[in-house]
Amino acid sequence: MNKNDFAQNPPMGWNSYDYYNTEVNEAQVRANAEYMAAHLKEFGWEYVVIDISWYAVDAGSQSDKYQYLPFGELLMDEYSRLIPDPVRFPSAAGGNGFSVLADYIHSLGLKFGIHIMRGIPRAAAHEHRGLLGTDVTADQLADPANICPWNPYMYGLRVNMPEAQMYYDSIMQLYTSWGVDFIKCDDICREDAPTAHREIELLHNAIMKCGRPIVLSLSPGPAKISEAAFYAANANMWRITDDFWDSWPLLKDMFRRCELWQGKNQPGCYPDCDMLPVGVIGGCFDKKVERQSALTVEEQRTMMSLWCIAGSPLMAGAELTKLDDFTLALLTNRDVLDMQRCGQYAMQLARTDEYAIWVSRDPAKDRGYIALFNLADEERAVHCWVGAIADRGYKPYDGGRIRELWTGAEAAFSSGGLACLVPAHGARVFVY
Question: Of 67, 87, 365, 427, whose CB is crowded by the most CB atoms within 10 A?
Answer without folding.
Answer: 427
